[in-house]
From TrEMBL, chain A:
Belongs to the GatB/GatE family. GatB subfamily. One of its GO terms (cellular component) is mitochondrion. SUPFAM superfamilies: GatB/YqeY motif, Glutamine synthetase/guanido kinase. It comes from Hucho hucho (huchen). Residues 31-316 form the Aspartyl/Glutamyl-tRNA(Gln) amidotransferase subunit B/E catalytic domain. GO terms for biological process: glutaminyl-tRNAGln biosynthesis via transamidation; mitochondrial translation. The keyword Ligase applies. Allows the formation of correctly charged Asn-tRNA(Asn) or Gln-tRNA(Gln) through the transamidation of misacylated Asp-tRNA(Asn) or Glu-tRNA(Gln) in organisms which lack either or both of asparaginyl-tRNA or glutaminyl-tRNA synthetases. The reaction takes place in the presence of glutamine and ATP through an activated phospho-Asp-tRNA(Asn) or phospho-Glu-tRNA(Gln). This is Glutamyl-tRNA amidotransferase subunit B.
From TrEMBL, chain B:
The lineage of its organism: Eukaryota, Metazoa, Chordata, Craniata, Vertebrata. It catalyses: L-glutamyl-tRNA(Gln) + L-glutamine + ATP + H2O = L-glutaminyl-tRNA(Gln) + L-glutamate + ADP + phosphate + H(+). Belongs to the amidase family. GatA subfamily. This is Glutamyl-tRNA(Gln) amidotransferase subunit A, mitochondrial. Pfam families: Amidase. Gene3D superfamilies: Amidase signature (AS) domain. The active site is at 89 (charge relay system), 164 (charge relay system), 188 (acyl-ester intermediate). Keywords: ATP-binding, Ligase, Mitochondrion, Nucleotide-binding, Protein biosynthesis. Subunit of the heterotrimeric GatCAB amidotransferase (AdT) complex, composed of A (QRSL1), B (GATB) and C (GATC) subunits.
Length: 410, 515
């Protein structure tokens, strides 16, 4: 039963993708949106001068502001603004020249102020597109290009970490992560299955890594992905959606989404209704399970952040207000100039320059350092690129895999 | 009253000295900072039990700071105010001192850092005498809301001193400190200054950094001071004002000497009198005093302009929506997790929060947190908070329109002189209504002052409010200073201790005369 259903999910995904909807109009299809929290790769936190670091001793990277001592105030980190702007430009977003900060209130021990500073009303970037590709077709060698709309990118604070010590009935709070800058990237529900979502996230990781704005490691929590999943019949209004959390890899993202779509289909086809709830992904079983309704019908009582004036970014130095030090300005023109070559452009260039197959260009770009290595080999040996690719794909990859090394490790 | 240590005769007149005079005495080595601090500490020891103006006094610490000031002077590094004593409202975080904000919630909080205001005062060589009492978390107009007990008005121990900076005002009025820092969110400098017969100033929003100033309502709070004279306030503003990158609402402007225009003649000054400030609700004796004061200024050359601030009445609901909303957010951090009061018994996190906050906060604070939470809640935000912010814009527009036709605006600070302790504490709304003349100023972000103008029918001080346009502190101080040079017209009596003897002092404007 499970196996058949899983294939059916993939089948409906492909039906929707490859053929017109007239083929199977009564089939339930999945609708998937993503909320991605990307930790900004910066030296210091979003609103305070404490260092951003991982695996530091607990509570060693905490300033008075991070601990929400009375009288402390936020000061915006320019690097974080640049990172958000750069990411927005790379994703073809409209950068809002003026954006605003808000407070989102809830009480929890790892949220020292009792509120998170975020951008709910008017975020820094809106209306972008992420173009991603995955290998489709029967032999998985056809490059299928899709795009998903980016609704918005907003700057916000990360929370601290709670470690529950059930043995001693206590909870330990580590605030090292409290106040670290995040970009929340909201993707519209333009995807229909786990494979698409995973491909989109992988592409996002590559883009963020190329930009240097986020290191993108899901296992280390640098990139956290929550999926919004619902099912419906094409043409019908959208179904009730659930939010799926606790996903620590692109692969698990695909598994979680496909399980959830299947689960919802089963619920609906047996006459039940899907609950609007938050569910947690269990990596061992591959299931999603309801979470304790901590956030249920939370009222966050959003309020404008009175300690921060509106964030202004400028198109060019000439449009910036006179007399302001460059260190106090973020200028779009300058950020655009610094945009590096994006993965999609890179892949295109490899195909055009070396005449290699598109699916090989994916491998080269996906693996850190492999593209540079490939190009170096071609240059040095003056061998035919296709020959080098063949060697890289088979011999080199095999060797690395055997020794459990990555290219960058040499 | 406990017998105070006897004062040296020549020093007793120091008690009435202004900052300027103290500065001169210190500079000419007639007195040392240690001696001066000692005299004030003696007075505090003798008089504070009756007034409760101070929450924390630490004699040894103060004398050590004073000794350091003397050392700086000996090394030739003394500034204008080096060695001058100051009382700090217990809302400014001060390293090594309990910073309680008048609340049980922070009774155990020893601040690990200094507020910008404290840093500036320390750099100027001011000597901390102690931490002044206040309404809890700056919420109140009578200083009856302090965990550490009410402050008494030195002019009449049955009267409130005003709030929330009641301790600062009482300390300066009773000559327990020559100057005190304070904060004003809806009138908390001006109203206690008025009720205690001292001069107080709230600057334009953004002029004094809020870094380290525990937040009540972030878009309304401003730090300021109280002293005996406008000139003293100008000297203190020079110390406190200035850009601070740690406060994102702090304004970067060219440095000003706020005392530069004190001596300017007032001929041609256009004084606006808002008709809404002289309407029903204003006590007759207060109205008379303000009219007399305006008359005095006319003799100095001022021209009176009739103006209107039509949205004055709306300032009360607008303020009492916005301020509690921001307060409910700002006080969310007080949960007992990292510092401050934590309940002793609880079964889980939720209960820990509930108990710690229930035990740590007083009733007025809880009231405002609940109001603030309500107005921000889903479905009510537009009707209350958003609406209030729109009204705020209208109020600011009223002032802009008025200032097109006048240089300063004058009026009363409060509808009556100080009421009795306990008189309004049972009816919070009655208390809120008495803020009618001061709230608009904070909503608009304007600067304003209170200067002693006379005494009510029952002998309690009444202040004149001066409201200036944005960044016109020097002009306001000029008007206040000229007013304070006028000869004595009315008098009042203050019973204070000098040495072992009670002396009755007539205090009018800036002059002190012993009977």
């Amino acid at each position: 039963m499970t196996l058949i259903r899983y294939d059916k999910v993939l089948l409906t995904c492909r039906i929707q993708n490859n053929w017109a909807l007239m083929t199977a109009p009564q089939e339930l299809v999945g609708v998937v949106g993503l909320e991605i929290h990307a930790q900004i790769h910066s030296n210091t936190k979003l609103f305070s001068g404490s260092q951003v670091g991982f695996q530091a001793p607990p509570n060693s990277l905490v300033s008075f502001f991070d601990a929400s001592l009375p009288g402390t105030l936020p000061v915006l980190n320019r690097r974080c603004v640049e990172a958000a702007v750069m990411t927005g430009l790379a994703l073809n977003c409209t950068i809002n020249r003026k954006s605003l900060f808000d407070r989102k209130h809830y009480f929890y021990a790892d949220l020292p102020a009792g509120y998170q500073i975020t951008q709910q009303r008017l975020p820094i970037a809106v209306d972008g597109t992420l173009t991603y590709s995955h290998l489709g077709g029967r032999k998985r060698n056809t490059v299928v290009t899709k795009s998903v709309r980016i609704k918005q990118i907003q700057l916000e604070q990360d929370s601290g970490k709670s470690l529950h010590d059930d043995y001693r009935s206590q909870t330990l709070i580590d605030l090292n992560r409290a106040g670290v800058g995040l970009m929340e990237l909201v993707m519209e529900p333009d995807m229909s299955c786990g494979e698409e979502a995973a491909a989109a996230v992988r592409e996002m990781q590559l883009i963020l890594q190329a930009l240097g704005t986020c290191q993108g490691n899901m296992a280390e929590g640098q990139l956290r992905v929550d999926a919004n999943v619902s099912v419906h019949r094409p043409g019908d209004p959208w179904g009730i959606r659930t939010e799926v959390k606790n996903i620590n890899s692109a692969r698990n993202l695909a598994r979680a989404i496909d399980y959830e779509i299947q689960r919802q289909m089963v619920v609906l086809e047996s006459g039940g209704t899907v609950q609007n709830e938050t569910r947690s992904f269990d990596g061992k079983t591959g299931h999603t399970i309801p979470m304790r309704d901590k956030e249920g019908l939370q009222d966050y009582r959003f309020m404008p952040e009175p300690n921060l004036p509106p964030l202004m970014v400028y198109e060019a130095c000439s449009t910036a207000p006179p007399g302001v030090a460059p260190s106090q300005l973020v200028v779009l023109e300058e950020v655009r100039e610094r945009l590096p070559e994006l993965p999609s452009v890179r892949r295109q260039r490899l195909v055009e320059t070396y005449g290699i197959l598109p699916e090989h260009s994916f491998t080269l770009v996906n693996e850190d350092g492999l593209m540079d290595y490939f190009e170096a080999v071609v240059r040095e040996t003056k061998a035919g690129p296709r020959k080098v690719i063949g060697w890289v794909m088979n011999e080199l990859q095999g060797l690395l895999h055997q020794q459990n090394l990555s290219v960058s490790q040499r | 009253l406990a017998a105070a240590r006897p004062f040296r005769t020549e020093v007793s007149t120091m008690i009435h000295a202004t900052l300027k005079q103290l500065s001169q005495q210190l500079a000419s080595k007639q007195i040392s900072a240690v001696e001066l601090a000692g005299e004030y500490l003696n007075r505090i020891e003798a008089l504070n039990p009756a007034l409760n103006a101070f929450i924390t006094v630490d004699r040894d610490k103060t004398l050590a700071i004073a000794a350091h000031a003397d050392a700086r002077r000996a090394a030739g590094e003394a500034g204008l105010l080096t060695g001058v004593p100051v009382a700090h409202k217990d809302i400014f975080c001060q390293q090594g001192w309990k910073t309680s904000c008048g609340s049980k919630m922070l009774d155990s909080f020893i601040s690990p850092y200094d507020a910008h205001v404290i840093e500036q005062c320390d750099a100027a060589g001011l000597v901390t005498l102690g931490r002044a009492n206040m309404d809890e978390f700056a919420m109140g107009s009578s200083n009856e809301n302090s965990y550490y007990g009410a402050v008494k008005n030195p002019w009449d121990l049955n009267a409130i001193p005003g709030g929330s900076s009641g301790g600062s005002a009482a300390a300066v009025a009773a000559r327990l400190a020559p100057v005190a820092t304070a904060t004003d969110t809806g009138g908390s400098i001006r109203q206690p200054a008025s009720h205690c017969g001292v001069t107080g100033l709230k600057p334009t929003y953004g002029v004094v950094s809020r870094f380290g100033m525990v937040a009540y309502a972030s878009s309304l709070d401003q730090g300021g001071m109280m002293a005996q004279t406008a000139e003293d306030c100008a000297l203190m503003l020079n110390v406190m004002a200035g850009f601070d990158a740690r406060d994102s609402t702090s304004l970067e402007r060219e440095r000003e000497d706020y005392s530069r225009d004190l001596a300017q003649p007032l001929a041609g000054l256009r004084v606006g009198l808002p008709r809404e400030y002289f309407a029903e609700g204003l006590a007759a004796d207060v109205g008379r005093i303000i009219d007399n004061a305006v008359g005095e200024l006319k003799k100095l050359g001022a021209e009176v302009v009739d103006i209107s601030l039509p949205n004055t009445q709306l300032s009360i609901p607008a303020y009492y929506v916005i301020a509690p909303a921001e307060a409910s957010a700002n006080l969310s951090r007080f949960d007992g997790v990292r510092y401050g009061h934590r309940a002793s018994e609880y079964k889980d996190l939720a209960e820990m929060y509930e108990k710690s906050r229930a035990e740590g906060f007083g009733s007025e604070v809880k009231r405002r947190i609940m109001v603030g939470t309500y107005v921000l809640s889903h479905g009510y935000y537009d009707a209350y908070y958003l609406k209030a912010q729109k009204i705020r814009r209208l109020i600011a527009n009223d002032f802009s329109a008025a200032f097109a036709g006048c240089d300063v605006i004058l009026g009363p600070v409060a509808p009556t002189a100080a009421f009795n302790l306990g008189e309004k504490s049972g009816d919070p709304v009655q208390m809120y209504l008495s803020d009618i003349y001061t709230l608009s100023v904070n909503l608009a972000g304007l600067p304003a002052m209170s200067v002693p103008a006379g005494f009510s029918d029952n002998g309690r001080p009444v202040g004149l409010q001066i409201i200036g346009n944005y960044f016109s502190e020097a002009k306001m101080l000029n008007v206040a200073h000229q007013f304070q040079q006028l000869p004595i017209v009315e008098g009042g009596k203050l019973n204070i201790l000098v040495g072992d003897q009670e002396k009755v002092i007539r205090v009018t404007r800036a002059h002190m005369e012993e009977d």
